[in-house]
Design a protein that fits this description.
The protein is α/β, with parallel strands linked by helices. The chain folds into two domains: about 110 residues, 3-Layer(aba) Sandwich (Rossmann fold), CATH 3.40.50.1390; about 35 residues. Helices cover about 50% and strands about 10% of the residues. The chain contains seven helices and four strands. The chain is elongated and about 80 Å long. This is Recombinase family protein. Keywords: DNA integration, DNA recombination, DNA-binding.
Length: about 190
């Protein structure tokens, strides 16, 4: 007879951050430290080795406890999709921070669906903003208006010739930058015209 097992998952976004607070909270909740999986990686990363390892080990009847739900994913949609996938596999998710009602039963299902809709709305609004910004940049470029960012300064023909001569003499781009007194980007632009 297989017995259910409690696992934990903790994550911080950078190597400089400490996992200790989350680890202590899960241990205090009765989860064996050996059954806690961790990642020191941004939540925006699609693949997280610790979480991937944990997800490959859980079986129906098991549970995963997290300090807070945002540890599980890169967006609200990703978090709730992960929870829904685990529930389909017979694995329950518990959060020490959020209410259990947000995860289970009819209320949990409603909250998940609502969060999916909010995430889709957020994604659509962001795509719309990106498309509008792209169209505005294209319109400014057609009118000859300077696009935001550092202005591009063209090298004089004599500077371009100087950069190309230095390259022909076997100088590296770093050496050319120092000798010609131009930026690295200008060096590469000048060399690309040959």
């Amino acid at each position: 007879m297989t017995t259910s097992k409690r696992f934990g998952y903790i994550r911080v976004s950078t190597v400089a951050q400490d996992l200790g607070r989350q680890q202590d909270a899960l241990t205090a909740d009765g989860i064996d430290a050996a059954d806690v999986f961790s990642d020191r990686i941004s939540g925006t990363r699609t693949s997280r080795p610790g979480l991937d390892d944990l997800l490959s080990r859980v079986r129906p009847g098991d549970s995963i406890t997290v300090h807070s739900l945002d540890r599980l994913g890169r967006s609200a949609l990703h978090v709730f999709q992960t929870i829904a996938d685990l529930e389909e596999r017979g694995v329950t998710v518990h959060s020490l921070k959020e209410s259990e009602a947000a995860l289970t039963g009819a209320t949990g299902e409603f909250v998940r669906k609502l969060m999916v809709l909010v995430a889709e709305l957020e994604r659509n609004m962001n795509a719309e903003r990106v498309a509008e910004a792209r169209a505005a940049r294209a319109a400014r470029a057609q009118s000859g208006e300077q696009i935001a960012g550092r202005p591009r300064t063209a090298l004089s023909p004599s500077k371009v010739a100087e950069v190309q001569k230095l390259k022909a003499k076997g100088r590296t781009p770093s050496e050319i930058v120092k000798l010609a007194g131009v930026s690295r980007a200008s060096v590469y632009r000048a060399l690309s015209t040959t």
